[in-house]
Q: What sequence folds into this?
């Protein structure tokens, strides 16, 4: 079986610079493609370099939690980068962009301005988007209706049924990952069970959002700082097992469906794997 991790921050310092080993473990587990989104201007070149060095995919964008330290000129730089590399087969989306209404003391007005500007760029270049959605689904949808784009992925989705279906109606797939593996995540697990199968893609958001078997409380981490195993793309097939169990279907069916869904959400992925049919 073959898998696509549709969201992983391989440039994160938690990986200790040993990205080749992380990718090697992922491929040994059957994860043959990883999408690496940028979060700010400073890592545009890094994520592009990782994608080309390791035959991955990448996205360029400014994350809502980075807009407070971004300059307005960074939007101009993003536009230049997207235009200059629009023919790059590994540049699959504008992302990670969006809104975060969970973290306190952030400038929501500035977040919204950067989000709206990046949607306009995606529309102008006919690129899908990778959305950061944290207690912000309705505001994100408002802008998407105002500035329709080619669709994409609502990453780490954890909203209501109505919000989920609204994203799907606008051409989006919904990203499910480690949070789904927690038994107490009742609403999220119910969504994973009941949404149309063609609405779901899989992701790790590594090194963030570890699955239940990797989670450590602050007290458990305190005696040995850094001892917790970071989340990584090799965990994706085990995360997929949770989805298979919730839906009562085989792991092979999950692999086939989520591969097709990721390729539909980010169409350039299909061109990167022209010889791959049924996973």
A:
């Amino acid at each position: 079986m073959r898998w696509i991790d549709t969201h992983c921050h391989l440039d994160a310092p938690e990986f200790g610079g040993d990205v080749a080993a992380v990718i090697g473990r992922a491929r040994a587990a059957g994860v043959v493609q990883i999408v690496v989104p940028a979060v700010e201007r400073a890592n545009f070149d890094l994520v592009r370099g990782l994608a080309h060095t390791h035959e991955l995919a990448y996205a360029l964008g400014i994350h809502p939690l980075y807009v407070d330290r971004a300059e307005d000129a960074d939007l101009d730089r993003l536009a230049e980068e997207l235009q200059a590399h629009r023919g790059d087969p590994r540049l699959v989306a504008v992302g990670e962009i969006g809104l975060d209404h969970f973290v306190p003391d952030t400038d929501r007005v500035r977040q919204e301005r950067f989000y709206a500007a990046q949607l306009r760029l995606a529309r102008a270049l006919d690129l899908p988007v990778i959305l950061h959605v944290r207690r912000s689904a309705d505001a994100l949808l408002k802008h998407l209706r105002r500035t329709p784009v080619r669709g994409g992925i609502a990453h780490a989705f954890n909203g209501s049924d109505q919000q989920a279906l609204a994203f799907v109606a606008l051409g989006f797939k919904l990203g499910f990952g480690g949070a789904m593996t927690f038994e107490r995540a009742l609403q999220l697990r119910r969504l994973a069970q009941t949404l149309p199968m063609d609405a779901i893609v899989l992701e790790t958001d590594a090194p963030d959002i570890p699955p239940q078997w990797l989670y450590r409380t602050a007290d458990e981490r305190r005696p040995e700082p850094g001892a917790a195993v970071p989340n990584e793309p090799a965990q994706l097939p085990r995360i997929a097992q949770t989805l298979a169990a919730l839906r009562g279907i085989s792991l092979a069916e999950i692999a086939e469906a989520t591969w097709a869904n990721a390729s539909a959400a980010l169409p350039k992925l299909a061109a990167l794997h022209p010889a791959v049919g049924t996973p």
About this structure: Strands lie at 3-5, 31-37, 57-60, 91-100, 129-134, 152-155, 172-176, 200-202. The first strand starts at residue 3 and ends at 5. The chain has one domain: 3-272. The CA atoms of residues 179 and 185 lie 7 Å apart.
